[in-house]
Amino acid sequence: MDLSASGSMPPCVFDLEARVAGHTAFAKLNRLLFVAERSEEHRAEAVELALRHVRMCTINTELYKKIFADYTSYIDVHTFDGAWVKSTDIKAAETLRRIEGDLRKGQMNSETENVRLSFNELGEFHFERGQLKKSLQAYLKSTDYSLKPAHTIAMCINIIRSSISMVSFSDSDVLLYAEKARMKMISDNKADPILLAKLECSAGLARMKQGEYRDAARYFSLVPFELESNFSEVIAPSDVGLYGTLCALATYNRDELYTLKSKNQPFKNFLELVPVVRELLSDFYCSRYDKCIDYLKLLRPELELDIHVSHCLDELYKMIVENAMLQYCIPFSSIRLSKMATTFRMDIEGLEKEVCKLITAGKLMARIDSFNKQIFATQTLQRNSTLEGVLKVGNTFNDNATAVLLHTQMRKHGVVLRDTSKRL
């Protein structure tokens, strides 16, 4: 199904600066450089914003030089600031010598807490310099010196942050450390909503990367609204509403969608940050599938430039449309393909092929009358099957009750049947 056109919705205006405003550190830089790589239209703006952020908010001189080398022809406003690169490198070298000196001193004197703090500071230093592998190594080395649950939790969060910042991160490692931090939090009997939000977001991103969209939706739906900007180096609050909704629309049934949109107050708060996504979820639940298709087309240009969704966008959209078709067919015993095709913005032949795929896969119990262009349900109506089940249970209960009463009356009147076959 083609979801590339904008349909009846107004054309999408992609505000790049607003899209990355809720992110910091590598979350912002990775998104900007991803857009620069994928979009010719937005490349110059993305490069300019990336250079500004690197220059003003980081000490990552290697990335600064790499951007200039890769996108020289797209840089008009900025000139290469060699003085900043030199002075930043000198200060970084001095900082590194101090941290390594403190670390050696702590190790020589067997000062466990100082060693742990030094490894954390070293990890943070390498993170700010863009040396993510070295950052991970430093955080991992602090494991042996993390004696309290709070220390282990902080170590897990740091490892998760550095891992996800590497873009091609190991989803299994993120899930492992998220669960480890969760277990430590439970054992320490401390329910920190901000910490919990970070863990749920991390697990949601990892599950989404694995293609486990139902689990991803569940994790995103559990994120407390206290997240705010406390994890902006990984994810923004608006991303929670966006990613959670897309994964839910692909895998949830109507009851689950109702709970998500109406009873989950934290998630409702996240949806308020992305009005288009909020309307998409509402229209899907209310069976306004024509508007859903229009919203999906409207969002697609922006989602194609999203670093976490773009790789699975086609699969997600396919699952969402399939789920919509299944929900559309459930209430009816027969459906005209022409009416359904209008709703889903498709031609009749294309829709017939999509429905055939659902029937072949065993997802839709129906048959197609290709001559009259109609779909007929072959599955027994749920109401009838439920009534039959209730009657069967009632009859079984009645039979059992009659047998018990009969047995009681027979014992009362001394009517006993003996097994004569055992007599000698």
Could you please describe the fold and organization of this structure?
- It is built from 20 helices and 3 strands.
- It has helices at residues 16-19, 25-38, 43-57, 61-70, 82-108, 112-129, 132-141, 149-165, 171-187, 193-210, 213-221, 237-251, 254-263, 265-271, 275-285, 289-303, 313-329, 337-343, 348-360, 382-412, and strands spanning 334-336, 366-369, 374-377.
- A 3-stranded antiparallel beta sheet has the order 1-3-2.
- α2 packs antiparallel against α3 and α9 (171-187) runs antiparallel to α10 (193-210).
- The chain is flat, with a radius of gyration of 30 Å.
Outline the secondary-structure elements:
Elements: H1 16-19, H2 25-38, H3 43-57, H4 61-70, H5 82-108, H6 112-129, H7 132-141, H8 149-165, H9 171-187, H10 193-210, H11 213-221, H12 237-251, H13 254-263, H14 265-271, H15 275-285, H16 289-303, H17 313-329, E1 334-336, H18 337-343, H19 348-360, E2 366-369, E3 374-377, H20 382-412
